[in-house]
Design a protein that fits this description.
It is built from three helices and eight strands, in the order βαβββαβαβββ. The protein has helices at 16-33, 91-106, 121-125; strands spanning 5-10, 48-55, 58-66, 75-82, 112-117, 130-131, 136-138, 141-147. The protein is globular and about 40 Å long. Helix content is 26%, strand content 33%. With 148 residues, the chain is α+β, with helices and mostly antiparallel strands.
Length: 148
Amino acid sequence: MPAPDWIFSSFEELDSKLLYAMLGLRAEVFVVEQECAYQDLDGHDQDALHLCGLYDGELACYARINAPGTKTPYTAISRVLVRKEYRGEGLGRLLMRETLARCERLWPGATTGLSAQQYLVEFYASLGFRAVSNPYDEEGIPHVDMLR
């Protein structure tokens, strides 16, 4: 799969159409698909960097990055997603590689962490993350904390 067109920006730099698409896709994946009623708008978007991958102008994948010390003591990756119709083609791996490369450029050598859904632990391990917690429940979905 070819790499998408990447847009990487702060919250203030997001244009209204992309912000709407981003929040809509997050709701589609995390609330509707996963049948998980939770508060997606958690107060961490405003101090985050947002990596959006687009194909033909359509948002296909997304990840949120918070600098060390803003959400956690380490660089925090969250809200990682791939639009349903783009799954199974390697886009998640492309997204994570791009996300990690941007983290390394911005905060060289810094620890990076995420809260992985338990079924994705092997995927994140293949990218250099290791589990640092036992599974725990987050909004009815088993998660594991992982660091790299």
